[in-house]
User: Fold these one by one.
Assistant:
Number 1:
Amino acid sequence: MSSRVRGAGGGGRGRAHAAVEAYFRLAPVTVPLYAIAVAVVLGGLVILLAGANPVEAYSALFRGAFGSPQRIAGALARSTPFIGAALAVAFAFKAGLFNIGAEGQLLVGGLTAAWVGTFGWMAGLPAVVGIPVVLLAGVVGGALWGGIPGVLKARTGAHEVIVTIMLNAIALRMTEWLVASRAPVILLDESSSVPRTRPIAAGARMPDLFGSVHLGLLVALVLCALVWFVLNRTTAGFEIRTVGINPNAARYAGMSVPGTIVLVMACSGALAGIAGAGEVSGGLGFLTPGGFVGFGFDAIAIALLARANPFAVIPAALLWGSLLAGAPLMQLEAGLSIDLVRIVQALIILFVAADAIVRYLFRIRAPRGEDVAEAAVFAKGWGV
Amino acid sequence: MATPAASKTAPDAPEPEVVSQRTRRRGLTRLSRLQTIGLLFGLLGVVLVGQVANALPADDVIFTFGFGDLAPELPVDPPNAVLAIGVLFCVAGVVALAERWTHHYAGVALLVATGLFVPLVLVCSLALSSSNQTNLIPLLVESLRLGTPIALGALAGLWCERSGVVNIGIEGMMLAGAGVGFVVYALVGGGRGGLALYASVVVAVAVGGLMAALHAVLSVTFRTDQIISGVVINLLAIGGTSFLRQQVLLPLGVQSGVTLPAVSVPLLSQIPVVGQPLFTGKPIYFSMFVIFVLTQVVLFRTPWGLRVRSVGENPHAAETLGINVITTRYQAVILGGLIAGLAGAWFSLETVGSFDDLMTNGTGFIALAALIFGKWRPWSAFGGAMLFGFANALGTRIQFLNVAVAGFPVPSQFLQILPFVVTIIVLAGAIGRAVPPAAVGVPYSRSR
């Protein structure tokens, strides 16, 4: 029951269409940049309140992320999984679906990758075969975990937000059991003191490009281009966007709305699954049950910051990852908790979401009247 | 499920039509929702009768109710009990499959069968454990206690969503209440209890309300997407409370552990056998019951409750009748936030006596599931919350009892997963559809 559907009922190019367009297209760069600026200033106030010098703290934060080649590599490595996960969320946004389950999909993708990577026959494989095999395992796991809410939404109308929240919890508990169980031992590496899976075969490990940056970054960048291509240059992409903007119009045009929903959710899960597999294959080489806690929300935040644009996801994820990567140095030098970065991140999203505030502060005219503030794209109510 | 007539009369609700058209097309060869679930229950019944019943050890298991010499005991023979439940599952399955003739009895049968899961799980786990006796009253009390934050969170969501504002920020409101409440307790009271403890609960409640006010400003005044606004609330609470803990709490070095004291209900707690466990508890636990009754009364029996509901169902009609939609939504959202803050205080001030990062651990989302499970009605939501509470309590009990199947301990995670699976099944429409307030998720604007 969204405003866009209501608008479309009026016939022709509905108000809702304009709202969606406005949300994703208008002032796509300036508003996020202003939002970041306001968030940084407010974060500075928090730093002052905590009794530290904001300039020093931010300088340490910056140097922590970009101060040396190693630090830059660390920031890039930190951002890598965010690109894939945020891309998953952004892709679902395009079809009007809110995938809050990137966390579970990352976890299941990582789990299948870590499981397949330890198979006996993996040991002898060359990297050219081994890496695609584990990534494919991640795709299958993620697509399965993302496909469930898709099928349920398409067949029964169960709202994907709740189903994916439930599936996140289920994925977390199942992984906990599969990885940590000692009786019976399933995936646990018994030689390790902390619960984690056995290391995957050497042929399944993605090589490092420079520093700690692994091949997964390139994979993520290619995926961004691929998603952009599919969305903007293929029939399937056209259908996906049409379903997102106006499912009724899509149905009258002969498109299968339920089919698209299933497809999009499965693909979204697959994208997150690759990101999860990439972290297992390129990062540590094993999976810990708590490895992806909190990634789902970060992914949503990054996708919002990027306004669901596949290419904009890249700088947004880099911003996110470098903030997190730079925080430890800030803590060391300015004596501030690394969680300050979380506050700044939340403020960024706040001002990106409530862009009316930013527009008011910086006198940016809302180009299409009041509709800009009414971009009710995602909150469609529950389950009906 | 929207009927064709309903979709015609509500032109701004074509979304359900997409789904219902598919379900309507199902002919005789396709099973309806109830029939599908009935079939599953029937199959499960057959498995129970054929496989599980005779595999269980034949020794009696004993359920005790309460404490003292007078406590009643109920000996149960596991194979026969499982056999009986299996047969009942089969009967329920048949009744549901014959939906054409049994009509609404099909739903009732499935509801009863679902309820039978509780004794089934209890009997099976006790039969397979190293002990043969368990006390059900403490299990019940523990379920209620662990269900408290979930139930309060569900009420927080209920007030918010009944007024037409989606709230996925319950988790953040709870976390903020738990965190700030405890920081104030540590600063003012030094973590030593006393009056400061109660004052901190008030602060926690107020902080929940403040977070909700932010949600209202964003989603009602600025008409931001309500789900995004909820995400913002959650991110802000996670960052803010972790920051507070690092900057303020850890330097203070308060090792509290002093929590709200347990209280006994006068007279009722004197009842022999069951009085003491049932009517002794902590303040927030008891307040939950009061808040539930108040919610039920205020929401359904007062003019203001009617206003909240009308604003959530049809804000334009409400406005025409002179109700201020914006104000009413603000009131309902903030009231919900106050309740969420109290749920936060349950964690830090009533249960643990300290604050940890991400202390609420997803309870806000489970509360949301309980709310939807309960179809946005207070007592059904309470039932949903208690289902989660029961699963948690049973999980601990089963670990404690060394329940083992084929020589391997039953993972507590399996029981923790159970309510999530049930929620998905319910949401998928197995036990009747969950119909949310009509205007939920739609920012209100007079001009439309």
Number 2:
Amino acid sequence: MASLNVLVLVCLGYVALLFLVAFAADRLAATGRSTWLRSPLIYTLSLSIYCTAWTFYGAVGYAARSGLEFVTIYVGPTLVMIGWWWGLRKLVRVGRSQRVTSIADLISSRYGKSNTLAICVTILAVISVTPYIALQLQSITLSFSIFAEADPNNSYNEIASVFWVAAGLAVFAILFGTRNLDANERHHGVVTAVAIEAVVKLIALLAVGIFVVWGVAGGVTDTMARIDASEIGQWNIDRGRWATITFLAAAAFVCLPRMFQVMVVENDDERHLRTAAWAFPLYLLLMSLFVIPIAVVGLDLMPEGANPDLFVLTVPLSQGQQGLAMLSFLGGFSSATSMVIVAAMALSTMVSNHIVMPIWLSSRGSGASVSGDVRSVVLLARRVSIAVIMALGYFYYRLSGGGAALAAIGLIAFAGIAQILPALVGGLFWRGATRTGALAGLTVGFVLWLYTLLLPGIGGEVMPAVVMENGLFGLSWLKPQALFGIDGLDPMVHSVMWSLSLNAAAFCVVSLFGFPSPIERLQAAQFVNVFEHSAGPRGWVGSVAQSEDLMIMSQRILGAREAQVFFHAEAQRQGGRGHLPEPTPMFLQRLERELAGSVGAATAHAMIGQIVGGSSVSVEDLLAVADESAQLLEYSSQLEAKSDELSRTAHQLREANEKLTQISLQKDNFLSQVSHELRTPMTSIRAFSEILRDTEGLQPDEQTRYATIIHDEALRLTRLLDDLLDLSVLENGQVNLNMGEGMLAEVLDRAVSTAMTGASREMRILRNETNERIPVHSDLDRLTQVFINLIANARKYCDATAPELSIRVHEVGGKVVVDMIDNGSGIPRDSRKLVFEKFARVSAERAGGAGLGLAICREIMQRLGGDIIYLNGHQGAAFRVSFPSGYQLAAQ
Amino acid sequence: MSAEPEIDPGDPGQVSHPPVFLERQGYRRRRLMDAARLLPLIGAGLFAVPLLWSGTSETEAPYSLSSAIIYIFGVWAGLIVLAALFGYGARRLGRSSDVPGPEPD
């Protein structure tokens, strides 16, 4: 008979072996020579933590009590795995692209990274899983007690052994689960150890099964006969429970934190799912294949009242198969330890990430900017969390008394954890699912589960009998196991139906009426359309294939030629011969910088991350992209405004330049004309003065004539210079107007008499004296000068045989208008624009003056506040002089 | 669904547009995926069949547990074999075309 001490030694040796394996696997993974660690087989075996001690021992007990119903626990996960194409594939892809660390993280990440939701899911998970951990403790303790009973020198203390089992498992979980600093990294050691334990428990159960069928019952046919003859030999199932538990097992398989851990977080390559899709159901099939035979044989062999939960152990023991019993014990031990380790790891990640760290960071005040000691704090938080979770399990076991009530707790835990399902499935497939909806659904489901299943189910007097009988507050429709008066259902079916349906309903309705925040909507798109956003299935190992992808992407952004040159240069820098460089971090950094020049830093980072990291664009990346493009947009609009301003300035500059050029041209013309005008009289003066000086014996009359010419020319020069001076003074605005009062008629009289003095030709002046009786307030001398000029011009240039000049005077709206129209042929149309320019002369042959007269007239009139224009539409030359009469002005 | 990025026809780095009609192999693979999706539904239906069994009428003899075991485990094994075949087929077809192309979503 194996003594208890031997048993303990075997356990310790087994644990030490597992630890060695885990350690070796971690080392192997660190050196990168671990291809078989990433194989689909290891992945499939690690999924087997679904089969806990509860299923290892409990399935037989379950079968002994209710026949084939136990199979539903396995059928649910089988359907989920076979249907991986529907849901698991998406779940795994999302988990990997979003770098999810736990199911709470996934839910929170989907609903806008809400920490409230993460805390809710974490609490729900802790409450559901703690009894489950207690169950493992119970199964180990019970199996110990079986051996203890058989031990003659019995010094077995159940309470103490539970404590030591819990403490041992906690240490084990801490050593295994928190070795890696990074939660995102895969725990190769743990996964490998779990895989080995999966093999051990499968072999153990198969060995017991084979022994029972061929060693005890005597073959398959005999076994079948025994089954039919046994007390559970009739096909008699509760249909509601059959369907409900199948569904529940399927839901829990996805939602259980430890399943999520191995299935999603520890997944190396989503192609492993393809293998696990058939291999894991096969594992489950083998695990359940001998359950009924063991139960039936156990019922036959064991005395009345023996605990059917322990048939796997007691049947071999009763047949004297010590070795087999020991193997079976190791199988159960494996089931319990692997479940506890992974569950504690998963829960501690959730607790530390979503509860401890936020509190710690906010207590530090400075936020996440502190970097140095965060990692050690995370590790410490995880270790403490594991210890606390194990302690919770231990106390739960102590409180519940460790009786048969614990056996039912497995399904209750399933029902609790399944409350996550609506939020999870809705989050993966429905973009309209919102954070508030998920919160509402979770809360409703959690409360109903607590009220209808957990509290009535855990035994003791947690739920008062009064409430059970009469409902809460004496309201009969609130009876925990007959809500809304629907009676007669199995409590499990009743609870699952109400909690999950109302959970889903609350989730949908609140989601429909709510409006998600932008980050929620972004995450929703990322999750629901994960296959459009993330890269195809790819391992984590870097390869040249990534370089090809990078090349294709870079060609699109940089241009084909530039990209090829850049890649070639990088390949040469790395010393390779090919055209494609290895995707080293250095190269990636340079490429990212190169791309950032074209598309912005955030986009470049996201693009390279998408190809190399296998992870999709995160919301932060997207927000950064949005920020960057907003900045670019603003910058470009600023540029546009500046460029507009510049083009306006350039336009103004061009105009100014044209003006300057014109002015310069005018100045040149003016100078050349002035010098020309000066030159003509100077030439004759010089010529005649030379004659006077050099010619001997000039007659006195000749001398007089020449001197007269010189005098005349000098006068002309003086006049020209006077005119120029006059014009210059007028143009510069330096003229002093000598304002005076008088009648227009007198001004005209004086002008006519002055202009006609010494005229060689007679010219009739036509005037209307009555119209001219207008008092004017102006510079009368200047006004006279203008009129003299006009009349003199008419006298000089009118080519009619009997020249006439009519002077017409009107007064229009405070303005005096004087028209002077002669009966000559007028000024040619082309020249009309030019007559007021300096040195403008209509015809060269009748050059009398310097051509400054009209220019001076216009300057004078503008100084006087009036104008002088050429009137079109008359036969002869017609000028209109207009100026304010001054009196109305003064009156105003 | 279109997992493949949009392809610029003028881009020398790209080969061609994804075709409207798949070649025979791609077509086979997609139909295989359809069948794989159907599998869990069929499985759920078959596993629900025992719900119809238990003798509602008193006259009928209830089914024996051994036949129920044979049925359930038979269905189970059948599903596993089919799933394995689909997985193998998908891998074989997928490998020959090398790139995991757009799945018919």
